[in-house]
Amino acid sequence: MPRHLDSIDKIVTKYFACVCDEPFMYKDVTYLPRPLKISPLIFRGFTCPVGCAACCPRFSLDYLPKEDKPTGLILLPRKVEFNGRNVTVHSNMQYDNKDYHCMNVDKRDGRCVVHGRQPFSCDFELIRFMEFADQAKPNMLTQKLFGRKHAMMRIDGERGTLCEMLPSDYHTVNEVVRKLERLKAWCAHFKLKHKVNPIIEHVRRWPDTTSMTVRGEYKPRRIKV
To answer: Domain limits at 61?
Structure first.
């Protein structure tokens, strides 16, 4: 049985920490702004095969108060202390769920029964913020498979994720933009000064004709914000 995870910890300490434009405090730790590079791999998409659900263990299911929520999912308001203020989010902590996997996983095929209205921490995958111990080195925003994919448990009890990365196209880019817009809404709700807007503008320019090679292939460049 995996330990219970609060998804807000990931959202704040990973997502907010990498896009903040001002210092903030969370659970007695101060997070400082750092430069962020956007990898060309951010444009990619990915598959989500039937019979997997390896990325769906039990964790808190969190929404902003005004976000569209699944019918029938019980969500209760709770206060999250952030930067000296209490911020309200609506959550199902899954304390009563004793299964390894999330309560929203269909045990027959591993599909999410609230897909399309899934919590933010689920929706934002497989976008990654890569942080480096060297404070002089910029963090990296990319899209990639799970680092410990071989150890993650599928719905059939076997180990190893089944997802694969896909080449970029207009659909995958639109999905990245949609997820970044949701990240921006979360930053705004927590009153965090952020740099998500220039990231979105960069992604929206795909494919930028100024970056085309002589053969007409798009070669996105790594940029820094």
So the answer is: 7-211+218-224
